[in-house]
Amino acid sequence: MTDGPVRVLVADDHPIFRDGLAMLLTSVGGVEVVGTAANGAEAVTEAVRLLPDVVVMDVQMPELNGVEATRRLASEAPSVGVVVLTMSEDDGTVFAAVRAGARGYLVKGAEQEEIVRAITTVAAGGVIFGASLAVRIAEFFAAGPPAPTAAFPQLTAREREILELLAAGRSNGQIAAALYLSPKTVRNNVSNVFAKLQVADRAEAIVRAREAGLGH
Hints:
By secondary structure, the protein is α/β, with parallel strands linked by helices.
């Protein structure tokens, strides 16, 4: 980190939130927004090109989710810190982001001061999580590793149910019919499963699931 302003890239697929956050950060002294990105793939490309101090990264984005984008940045631009800012407080998403290399994790709705503090802390090489998330992370590590018999503990019961059907070769339409869910709900859950398992596509998710004994 230089003595100048903290250089930030904002990545979010919702234009109103993305532009609003960029405008908010621009109004803060000591922070310079150097670019924005509308999806995970663009976030990686722009971060490698611009080398900002920090990327503020949404999790659920098209083309490449925020967890996978964070993992790629850790490899391709390790000097760039990532603060994940998302709607999800789900433990699986939190730990997937941390394992991918995120050094900050905040939920959307965090106060401006909290967001700026997270950005400056990560830019300085620190790690920061929102208060409620920090407590859960501490509890998680205090409890020790999960029982080895539970495959994919980061998944919710519904997501595990859907992964089981994925591993059995069911399509999204068949899963929706079997579980009495809307196709959109199934798509959202499948996307969450991909993010939490840190896989790129359906085929990779099926391989991971079958290796763990699901889908037989």
